[in-house]
Structures are given as structure tokens and as C-alpha cells.
Task: inverse folding
């Protein structure tokens, strides 16, 4: 069982291509942090936004971003996924729902990637329905689908081509969230049964 996963993860990476190197990843994180600091780290400001990480994909981006934010903030997380094919989104499933601490708050939602936008559109609506005062959507990457999405991010670290990527929190079959750069997986490698 462990051998199977080890071998499969290695084989997927052996066929993958790095499209964003670790330095470019860190540059993108810094750009996002600078923009958030310009928005919230203001003289005389009294805001206290709630930064809400969307687990599991946002764990690495959030962990890299938080130490670069220079204003008082509160942190919490939600956990939501889309089930279906591994490489194509399906039904939205909540694993950890937002808590009452979102009521009346200015919320900075942090996620890994905006793909079809179903997940973040759903998350934003749920937060507003619960009484959030404002929802600012921040994504590490935005996939260029060449068509409109149900939600747009307020801040984007990187724009990516419409390919399946892994690394910096993003996974294929649960593998390779730990890569410090971004790699594209071959389309034929996304069709294997789990
Ligand atoms: P959306 O609802 O299609 O925008 O799906 C967004 C979620 O799907 C992201 O938060 C990721 O968890 C996952 N996802 C979308 N594209 C990729 C990808 O290329 N690699 C890994 N995960 C992805
Ligand atoms: Mg996600």
C-alpha cells in the first residue's frame, strides 16, 4: 500500500514539467502580501480582518503568506472540496464549515487556485449568507479558462494556463502538495483509476 503510493507519486512527477520555479512562487506570494499590506496596514486603521484559509489546498500559500502580513489579523480555516473526477470538479462537500466568528467581519478568503470558480463562489455566498460584512477573495493562482467564471478573485498571485498543476499546496491524487514550485501533470496521467 505505501509502496504503491510512493511509486505512483514518483512516476507522476517523473512525467511532469515544472512551469513555475520556487523563486517565482515566492515572488508571487510577496506581491500578494504587498497588496494586502497596502490595503490593511494603514496609519490610523482600526480594522481587524479574519483571514480564512480554505483547506487543504491553501495550507502552503497561507503558511507562506501570513508571516509577510504586517497588520493585526485573526486567522481561521474552513475545509471544502469538490468531489468527482480527480482532475474535474464535481459536487461541493463541506468538511469544516465556517464558524460564528465570520458574522459582521471583513474576511480575507485565501485559496490555492481559482479554476472553474464553483468552490469560491459557493464559499463567498455562504459567508455572506452567514452575515460576513465583506469578503475579499485572494488566490495564489488563477487558471485562464478563456471564459467567464462565476466569481473573480480580488487578488491573484499568478495567472496559469488551463493545465492541471501540482505543488505549493495543490495535489494530484493527494500527492505532491509539498513541492515548492508548480508542475504540470500530463493529461494521460490524470486518467488512471485510483
Ligand atoms: P473550482 O471550483 O473549479 O474553482 O475548483 C477549485 C479547487 O479545485 C481548488 O481549490 C483546488 O483545490 C482544486 N483544483 C483546481 N484546479 C487544480 C489543479 O490544477 N491542480 C490541483 N487542484 C486543482
Ligand atoms: Mg481547494
Result:
Amino acid at each position: 500500500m505505501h509502496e504503491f503510493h510512493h511509486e505512483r507519486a514518483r512516476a507522476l512527477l517523473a512525467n511532469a514539467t515544472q512551469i513555475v520555479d520556487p523563486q517565482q512562487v515566492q515572488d508571487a506570494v510577496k506581491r500578494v502580501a504587498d497588496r494586502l499590506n497596502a490595503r490593511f496596514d494603514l496609519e490610523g486603521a482600526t480594522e481587524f480582518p479574519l483571514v480564512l484559509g480554505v483547506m487543504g489546498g491553501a495550507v502552503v500559500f497561507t503558511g507562506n503568506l501570513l508571516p509577510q502580513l504586517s497588520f493585526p489579523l485573526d486567522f481561521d480555516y474552513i475545509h471544502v472540496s469538490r468531489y468527482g473526477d480527480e482532475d474535474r470538479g464535481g459536487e461541493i462537500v463541506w468538511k469544516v464549515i465556517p464558524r460564528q466568528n465570520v458574522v459582521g467581519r471583513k474576511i480575507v478568503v485565501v485559496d490555492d487556485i481559482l479554476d472553474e470558480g464553483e468552490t469560491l463562489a459557493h464559499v463567498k455566498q455562504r459567508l455572506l449568507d452567514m452575515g460576513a460584512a465583506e469578503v475579499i477573495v485572494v488566490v495564489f493562482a488563477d487558471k485562464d479558462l478563456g471564459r467567464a467564471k462565476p466569481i473573480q478573485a480580488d487578488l491573484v498571485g499568478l495567472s496559469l494556463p488551463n493545465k492541471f498543476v501540482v505543488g505549493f499546496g495543490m495535489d494530484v491524487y493527494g500527492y505532491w502538495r509539498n513541492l515548492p514550485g508548480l508542475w504540470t501533470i500530463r493529461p494521460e496521467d490524470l486518467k488512471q483509476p485510483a
